[in-house]
Design brief:
Blueprint lengths: L6 H18 L3 H7 L4 H10 L17 H14 L1 H21 L2 H12 L4 E5 L15 E5 L2 E12 L6 E10 L7 E8 L5 E6 L10 E12 L3 E2 L5 H37 L1 E2 L2 E2 L4 H24 L1
Parallel strand pairs: 1-4, 2-4
Antiparallel strand pairs: 2-3, 3-7, 4-5, 5-8, 6-7, 9-10
Helix pairs in contact: 1-4, 4-5, 4-7, 5-6, 5-7, 7-8
Length: about 300
């Protein structure tokens, strides 16, 4: 089995690595301290076409593959985890669900702006009483005439607090008593009547990433905003979350690689007994174990991608 990257994959990885080192890493600590949203960097990511790496050119994408995307996510996360998380939600989850399950009209209207980076997407599954047990969600959707009326609260919603966020894909229970419990997925624009951005979540880290509560109070959206099979909305969400978990793995590898780089720098600069501690075998063993674990994790996520 050939585990080598293609020339195109290497080119994307190297380009994103250079971009991250130049544009992202220098201000990472300051952004984490202030929590200021990095709109300027997001705009530059859009110019590079990063949000559209795995999607066809007809939708504004780069026509690449999922390996390339995850290489990019690793390099972004190596500089600042915020941008890996942003890409995970926008591209791996939201854009993929629109691309796989959306109609042609939905793709043109909602997918293209996300793929080109003009807009960001958000994913609305988690609720106050439905976290790991996501199927116990309580948000409801009812068809009234030509509109869906949604009621409920979603929390820990990544990206939706950004000014350039356009939509959130909401999983909701549809009221069809004669057919049992049905969970469908809906495209809910941020400017829909009855849509309210709730409190900003106070996090231990990722302060420059917009994470908010979403409140839907008689929120009305057009009938055609139903996404995919109305009886398989929950399954659709879980399908794209599988890719999202690969993205989380790539993010973790990026952070681990940054830690190893810093550890190496410190080991070479810190002197004891007249020499760098890097020269001591016990330290070398620790660093080698770190490098092996990171390379193993990288191989695993790339194989999954």
């Amino acid at each position: 089995m050939d585990f080598d990257l293609t020339q195109e994959q290497k080119m994307i990885r190297d380009e994103v690595r250079n971009f991250a080192r130049k544009e992202i890493a220098p201000g990472a600590e300051e952004r984490e301290r202030t929590g200021e949203y990095p709109y300027d960097i997001i705009a530059k990511m859009a110019q590079l076409g990063l949000m559209g790496i795995p999607f066809p050119e007809e939708y504004g994408g780069m026509g690449g593959d999922w390996v390339s995307l995850h290489l990019a996510i690793e390099e972004l996360s190596r500089a600042d985890l915020v941008f890996g998380a942003l890409m995970d939600v926008t591209t791996s989850v939201v854009a993929q669900e629109l691309y796989v399950f959306g109609t042609q009209e939905q793709k043109k209207k909602w997918l293209v702006p996300i793929v080109t980076g003009e807009k960001l997407g958000a994913f609305g599954l988690t609720e106050p009483d439905a976290g790991s047990d996501a199927a116990s969600l309580r948000t409801t959707a009812k068809l009234v005439g030509d509109e869906w009326v949604l009621n409920g609260t979603k929390q820990f919603i990544t990206n939706i607090g950004f000014e350039n966020a356009s939509i959130v894909l909401v999983a909701a229970e549809v009221d069809e008593a004669d057919k049992g419990r049905i969970i469908s997925t809906f495209i809910v624009p941020k400017d829909a009547p009855g849509f309210k951005l709730g409190k900003s979540d106070r996090k231990m880290a990722w302060h420059a990433l917009a994470t908010h509560e979403v409140i839907l109070s008689d929120c009305r959206i057009p009938k055609e905003n139903l996404l995919g099979d109305p009886h398989r909305g929950f399954a659709q969400h879980l399908t794209v979350l599988e890719t999202g978990r690969i993205s989380i793995a790539a993010m973790a590898v990026g952070v681990a690689q940054a830690c190893l780089t810093e550890a190496l720098r410190y080991a070479k600069g810190r002197h004891q007994f007249g020499q760098p501690i890097f020269n001591f075998q016990a330290v070398q063993f620790k660093l080698a174990d770190m490098a092996v674990a990171i390379e193993l994790a990288r191989t695993q996520y790339l194989k999954a991608a």
